[in-house]
Amino acid sequence: MRDAMTAPIYVALRASEPLLEHAVTAYLQSCPHFKLVPRELLPGADVSVLLVDVMDDEWLKVLRHDALRTAEAPVPLVMMADRITERQLTLAVQYGLTRFVHRSTSGLAELVEAIVEASAGNGHVPEDLVSHLILELGQLKRRRSVTTFSAETGMSAREMEVLRMLAEGMNSVEIARAMSYSERTVKGVIQDVMRRWKVRNRTHAVAYAIRTGII
Fold it and tell me: Closest Cα partner for 114 from 104, 100, 95?
């Protein structure tokens, strides 16, 4: 895991309002462990940050473009927004969203924490996204037994259980404790699934698993 106090975190920042972008940029520049990079250098950043009041389809196009630019070396996305639809949030996850911060109830401290966590590879699935994706699943898929569905998908019962706990917001330590495994084993399971599915991060893996009915 990155040591935020010794290794700089390179951040590419974009905001819907110039004043907001200027204020947050100044704040991050005052933190010794952050280095701001121009948007054109996004592929070389550790974290991409988007600050918006209202998410819309134009911003989704921007995120999609960014995802295509960084396809070879995905850059985790941290988004801070007030209003966003479930569909937009779902698409944002597909475009690399790793951490979501509610602008109306959070401040700069929460944004900084999200950036640090994203740079360390720690994702967070918003509860409203999980709820939306679960509602999208067909009743038949939700009723299938673990054994039957595991055979159909090639997923082991252990992998499915780890993904389910990730979807509930548990971290690697909590999952290891609940399953009586080592944290290293849990992280290995997650990495194996991510490589197999060719997804960007844990959040994307959980979203994919829910959308396809695996969990």
Answer: 100
